[in-house]
Recover the amino acids of this structure.
C-alpha cells in the first residue's frame, strides 16, 4: 500500500474548502477521502477520522473543538457537513467515569455539538476526544485484520510491526474502548498507532500528513508480512463444473429469491422480497470453489462493524445439485431453513427477540456460481457484496497463514443489535413496490418509460427492455436521474425473437435475482383498410403485438413460477380491443390477440398466486421528451382522415372522451402500480385508462 498524498491534492483541497473551513479541516477532508477511497481500508461508512481545532461560538468565544466523522457517513465523499464539530472540554471530563451507557454517551456528545442540527458523531467519538493528537485516523484495514484475527493475533502483529504500535484486546467500541486506547497511548507516547485486535487500526499525528502516512505505512508493513507468509500457499481447488457461473446463477437465483422472501404480516403484501447482487470474478471463484470455503463460511466477520450488512455468517451450499433442478431446490430449501434456525437460536440465546426480525441470510456462497448477496434494494445488496468479497479474500489469506478466529457470538450479537449500529441502516419508508422487480417490454416508448418511472417512484427496480438501444439508454438515464442510480437497467430485446427474449430475462435474473411484475407493452401500428391491408404489414404488426406479447408473457411467467411467491402480469392492451377503429384492423386484431392471451393466462397462472390484468389505454401521445412512436407513425393519416392538422389530434381525442380529459402516459403507469401493489384481490380485470370512450366501455 502506497501513500497517495500529493501536493496537487493538497492544493485542490485548500482551493475547495480552505476559504470556508480553514486549512486544518480542508486537509482533514483530503486525507479522509484518501482513506475512504481505498476499499482495503474501509467500506461503506466504515472507519472514522477527526481533527482538533478552535471554533468560535455565537457569542464570539473561541473554544477547543473536534470535528469527527458522523456515524454512517462515507469517508470517500466526506464534506464539511459530514464532520460535525463538538466542544471538547466537557466531554474530556467523562474520562473520569468508570462506565457510561450508550444512550448517555450519545446524549453527552450531542449536547456538545456546536450546531445542534448536525448529525450524530461516530460511535468512536470519545476515542478521538480522549487522544491528545490533532489528527486521528481509524480504519478496518484488511491486512491488519488478517493478522489480528488469528489464534495469537497479538504475536502476529508484533512479528509484523514490532513496537511501533500499541496492541489492545477486543473491547466493545464506545466509552470503554476510548479509555483503553487512551491508556495504551499514555503508557507509550512514542507509538505511531494502536492496533485493536479483531477490530482495526488507529493512527494519529499533529498534522494530517503524519497521521495518514503512518496509517498507510503500518498497513503496508502488514501487507508485506502477509505476502511473505503466503508464498507458496494457495486455495485448494475441489469444485469443478463445465457450465459458467452466469448460467448457473440464472438457474438458481429465482429459486433462492423465492425461498428468502419472508412474511410481513400484511395480508395484501404477505411477502417481502430481496434484490440480488451477484459476484463471480476469477479470483473470487478460486476461493468459492476451494476446500477452504467451508471453514471460511463457518466463522464470523472480519470486524463487528460489518454485521449489520451481512449478518454474523454467510450461508454455504456445499456441492450444489446443479444436475437436478428438483434436488437443487430441495437442497436450497434445507439450507435456508437450517440457516434461519441457527440465526434464530443465536439471537434468542443471547437474550434477543425475533419479533420483526428476518432470519434469512444476506450472503449465499454457491460453488460454481459465486456469491449471491441480497438486500432490500440493489444498493443494500451491493454493500453486502462488497463487504462479503473483502471478507472472503481476507479470511482466505488468514486461513492460509494460520487459523482465522472471529469474535464470539456474544460479542457479535452485542454489536449487531446495538442501537448505535442499527441506526446506520436505512430508515426509508417501505413503498408499495419496495423489493419488487418490474420488467417492461417496449420500455423506451412513451407508455413504457412512464410505466418504468411510476413503478420506480413506488420503490421498484425496473428492467426496461426495448429493441431500440439508443432510446432505451435515454429512458434508463431519465429514470435513474429521477429515482436513484440503481433504480433501472436497460436490456436490448427484440420481442419477436425467442432467443432475444430468453436472453433478456436471463440478464434481468443475473442483475436483480428474479421478477415480480411482467408488463407486455411493446406495440406497433399500421393504418390500412382491410381491402388494402398487405399481408406482410399484417404479419409485422401481429409479430410484435401478438407473438411478441406471447413470448414476453411466457418467459416472464416461467420466471414468476420458478420463485413460488406469486406476482403480477399486467398486459398493456388497447381501447381498440373493445372499440376498434376504421383502418386499424391489423392493430386491433393484434391487440385483441394479446388481450385474449392475458385472459387465458389469468386462468392458467392463478394456481401459482400470479394475477393477470389488462389495461386499455387510448390516445396516449407522450410528451416533448418521449413522444409516442405509434402516434408518430399513424398520426399523419389519422389527422388527414379527419381533415385536421397532426397537432390538433390530442385536443380531438380529449374532447371525444366522456371526462373531456387528456390521457397521459403517467396515468397508465399509475394503473400498473395499482395492480402491482395488490391493493385488491383482482385478476382477469380490464381497467380502461381512456377518459371514458363509450364504444369501448367494458361494462
Amino acid at each position: 500500500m502506497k501513500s497517495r498524498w500529493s501536493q496537487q491534492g493538497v492544493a485542490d483541497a485548500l482551493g475547495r474548502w480552505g476559504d470556508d473551513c480553514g486549512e486544518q479541516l480542508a486537509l482533514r477532508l483530503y486525507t479522509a477521502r484518501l482513506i475512504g477511497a481505498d476499499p482495503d481500508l474501509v467500506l461503506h461508512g466504515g472507519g472514522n477520522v477527526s481533527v482538533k481545532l478552535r471554533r468560535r461560538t455565537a457569542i464570539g468565544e473561541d473554544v477547543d473543538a473536534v470535528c469527527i466523522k458522523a456515524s454512517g457517513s462515507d469517508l470517500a465523499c466526506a464534506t464539511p457537513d459530514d464532520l460535525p464539530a463538538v466542544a471538547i472540554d466537557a466531554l474530556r471530563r467523562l474520562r473520569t467515569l468508570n462506565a457510561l451507557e450508550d444512550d448517555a454517551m450519545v446524549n453527552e456528545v450531542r449536547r456538545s455539538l456546536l450546531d445542534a442540527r448536525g448529525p450524530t458523531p461516530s460511535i468512536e467519538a470519545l476515542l478521538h476526544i480522549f487522544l491528545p493528537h490533532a489528527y486521528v485516523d481509524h480504519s478496518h484495514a484488511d491486512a491488519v485484520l488478517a493478522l489480528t484475527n488469528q489464534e495469537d493475533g497479538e504475536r502476529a502483529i508484533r512479528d509484523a510491526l514490532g513496537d511501533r504500535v500499541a496492541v489492545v484486546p477486543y473491547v466493545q467500541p464506545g466509552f470503554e474502548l476510548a479509555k483503553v486506547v487512551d491508556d495504551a497511548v499514555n503508557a507509550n507516547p512514542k507509538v505511531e498507532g494502536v492496533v485493536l485486535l479483531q477490530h482495526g487500526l488507529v493512527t494519529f499525528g499533529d498534522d494530517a500528513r503524519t497521521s495518514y502516512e503512518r496509517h498507510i505505512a503500518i498497513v503496508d508493513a502488514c501487507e508485506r508480512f502477509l505476502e511473505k507468509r503466503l508464498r507458496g500457499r494457495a486455495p485448494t481447488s475441489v469444485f469443478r463444473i463445465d457450465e459458467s457461473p452466469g448460467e448457473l446463477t440464472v438457474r438458481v437465483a429465482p429459486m433462492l429469491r423465492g425461498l428468502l422472501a419472508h412474511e410481513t404480516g400484511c395480508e395484501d403484501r404477505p411477502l417481502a422480497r430481496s434484490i440480488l447482487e451477484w459476484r463471480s470474478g476469477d479470483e473470487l471463484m478460486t476461493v468459492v470453489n476451494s476446500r477452504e470455503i467451508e471453514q471460511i463460511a463457518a466463522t464470523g466477520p472480519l470486524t463487528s462493524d460489518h454485521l449489520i450488512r451481512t449478518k454474523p455468517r454467510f450461508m454455504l451450499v456445499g456441492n450444489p445439485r446443479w444436475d437436478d433442478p428438483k434436488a437443487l431446490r430441495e437442497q436450497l430449501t434445507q439450507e435456508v431453513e437450517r440457516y434461519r434456525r441457527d440465526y434464530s437460536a443465536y439471537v434468542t440465546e443471547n437474550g434477543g427477540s425475533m419479533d420483526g426480525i428476518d432470519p434469512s441470510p444476506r450472503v449465499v456462497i454457491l460453488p460454481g456460481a459465486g456469491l449471491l448477496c441480497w438486500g432490500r434494494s440493489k444498493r443494500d445488496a451491493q454493500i453486502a457484496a462488497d463487504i462479503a468479497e473483502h471478507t472472503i479474500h481476507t479470511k482466505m489469506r488468514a486461513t492460509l497463514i494460520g487459523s482465522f478466529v472471529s469474535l464470539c457470538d456474544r460479542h457479535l450479537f452485542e454489536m449487531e443489535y446495538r442501537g448505535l449500529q442499527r441506526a446506520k441502516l436505512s430508515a426509508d419508508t417501505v413503498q408499495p413496490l419496495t423489493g419488487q422487480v418490474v420488467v417492461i417490454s417496449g420500455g423506451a416508448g412513451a407508455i413504457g418509460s412512464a410505466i418504468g418511472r411510476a413503478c420506480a417512484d413506488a420503490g421498484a427496480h425496473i428492467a426496461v427492455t426495448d429493441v431500440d438501444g439508443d432510446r432505451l439508454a435515454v429512458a434508463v438515464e431519465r429514470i435513474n436521474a429521477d429515482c436513484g442510480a440503481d433504480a433501472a437497467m436497460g436490456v436490448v430485446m427484440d420481442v419477436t425473437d425467442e432467443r432475444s427474449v430468453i436472453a433478456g430475462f436471463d440478464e434481468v435474473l443475473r442483475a436483480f435475482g428474479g421478477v415480480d411484475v411482467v408488463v407486455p407493452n411493446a406495440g406497433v401500428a399500421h393504418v390500412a383498410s382491410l381491402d388494402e391491408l398487405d399481408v406482410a404489414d399484417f404479419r409485422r404488426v401481429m409479430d410484435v403485438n401478438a407473438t411478441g406479447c406471447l413470448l414476453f408473457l411466457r418467459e416472464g411467467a416461467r420466471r414468476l413460477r420458478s420463485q413460488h411467491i406469486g406476482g403480477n402480469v399486467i398486459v398493456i392492451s388497447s381501447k381498440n380491443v373493445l372499440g376498434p377503429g376504421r383502418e386499424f384492423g391489423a392493430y386491433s386484431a393484434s391487440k385483441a390477440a394479446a388481450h385474449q392471451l392475458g385472459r387465458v393466462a389469468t386462468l392458467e397462472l392463478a394456481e401459482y398466486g400470479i394475477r393477470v390484468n389488462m389495461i386499455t389505454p387510448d390516445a396516449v401521445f407522450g410528451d416533448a421528451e418521449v413522444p409516442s412512436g405509434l402516434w408518430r407513425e399513424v398520426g399523419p393519416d389519422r389527422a388527414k382522415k379527419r381533415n385536421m392538422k397532426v397537432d390538433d389530434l390530442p385536443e380531438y381525442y380529449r374532447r371525444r372522451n366522456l371526462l373531456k380529459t387528456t390521457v397521459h402516459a403517467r396515468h397508465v403507469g399509475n394503473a400498473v402500480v395499482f395492480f402491482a401493489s395488490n391493493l385488491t384481490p383482482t385478476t382477469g380485470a380490464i381497467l380502461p385508462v381512456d377518459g371514458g370512450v363509450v364504444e369501448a366501455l367494458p361494462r
Observations:
- The first strand starts at residue 48 and ends at 56.
- The chain has three domains: 7-230, 245-422, 437-689.
